[in-house]
């Protein structure tokens, strides 16, 4: 939580809304039309990029996030774009209590699920995502390829160059988790800041097992928003499309 409270003002500098729309909009629109999706919950909505994108595209979208700072920023972004969307502060484990069963799709992207560090918490979260989905609902997850990260153990990653900011990652590897350090150099103020958060090193076989336990079936794995097939040895970020298992 402290990571997002501190990083919230830099998040929209690092992650460009316009670039995200250009890169991702067709992907979501194609899948949602294919699966007859209208109502959507972004359960890790951050500063609201996907909420705004999908609202502009005409979908009935709601958002939630555990971080009050991120929700406040998302509300400000929505207001700036004259959009009215329901947003709630919510832990993954409280989704059904806060929303009920009303969605055709749930999305949980941006490497959000691996913030949960135990199988118990992951199962609770996935159970809640299942619980808010209508019959024939779908779940879209996106995270780092931890199989590749753990194999390569590459520590330094360039991330982005912006007008006055440079961002890069430094990773620290431990047996069951990876610590991501985001280094931000601001060339205008000549300052350096470090933002640190832990991630569960959630490998694909374990994630598939947890999804199955929580009532999901993996339909497809993509490596990007152009529908390229995921390769566990070379792809950086799997995008996982799941359906509710038939009872």
Mean pLDDT level: 95
Q: In the CATH classification, which architecture of the largest domain applies? A: 3-Layer(aba) Sandwich
Multimeric organization: single chain
Q: What is the number of domains?
A: 2
CATH superfamily of the largest domain: Vaccinia Virus protein VP39
Q: Give the CATH level 1 class of the largest domain.
A: Alpha Beta
Question: What structural class should be given to the helix and strand makeup?
Answer: alpha/beta
The best one-word shape is: globular
Alpha plus pi helix count: 8
Please outline the major beta sheet.
Answer: 7 strands, mixed
Number of extended strands:
11
Description:
It is a single chain. Helices cover 35% and strands 31% of the residues. It is globular. With 247 residues, the protein is an alpha/beta fold. Helix 1 packs parallel to helix 4 (68-80) and helix 2 packs across helix 3. Helix 3 (49-56) links the parallel strand 1 and strand 2 (60-65). It has 2 domains: 2-144 and 202-244, Vaccinia Virus protein VP39 (Rossmann fold), CATH 3.40.50; 148-199, N-terminal domain of TfIIb (Single Sheet). It has a 7-stranded mixed sheet with strand order 3-2-1-4-5-11-10, sandwiched between helices. A 4-stranded antiparallel sheet has the order 6-7-8-9, with helices on one face. The longest helix is centred in the N-terminal third of the chain and has 18 residues, at 17-34.
Brief overview, please?
With 247 residues, this protein is of the alpha/beta class.
């Amino acid at each position: 939580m402290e990571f997002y409270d501190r990083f919230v003002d830099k998040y929209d500098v690092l992650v460009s809304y316009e670039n995200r729309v250009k890169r991702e909009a067709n992907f979501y629109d194609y899948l949602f039309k294919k699966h007859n999706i209208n109502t959507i919950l972004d359960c890790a909505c951050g500063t609201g990029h996907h909420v705004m994108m999908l609202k502009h595209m005409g979908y009935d979208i709601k958002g939630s996030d555990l971080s009050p700072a991120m929700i406040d920023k998302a509300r400000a972004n929505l207001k700036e774009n004259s959009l009215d969307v329901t947003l709630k502060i919510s832990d993954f484990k409280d989704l059904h209590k806060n929303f009920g069963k009303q969605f055709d799709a749930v999305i949980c992207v941006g490497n959000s699920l691996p913030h949960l560090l135990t199988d118990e918490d992951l199962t609770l979260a996935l159970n809640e995502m299942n619980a808010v989905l209508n019959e024939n609902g779908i779940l879209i997850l996106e995270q780092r390829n931890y199989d590749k990260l753990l194999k390569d153990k590459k520590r330094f990653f360039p991330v982005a160059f912006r007008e006055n900011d440079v961002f890069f990652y430094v990773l620290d590897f431990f047996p069951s988790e990876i610590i991501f350090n985001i280094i931000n150099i601001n060339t205008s103020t000549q300052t350096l800041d470090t933002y640190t958060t832990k991630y569960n090193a959630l490998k694909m076989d374990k994630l598939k097992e947890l999804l199955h336990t929580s009532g999901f079936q993996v339909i497809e794995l993509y490596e990007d928003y152009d529908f390229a097939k995921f390769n566990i040895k070379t792809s950086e970020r799997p995008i996982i499309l799941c359906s509710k298992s038939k009872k």
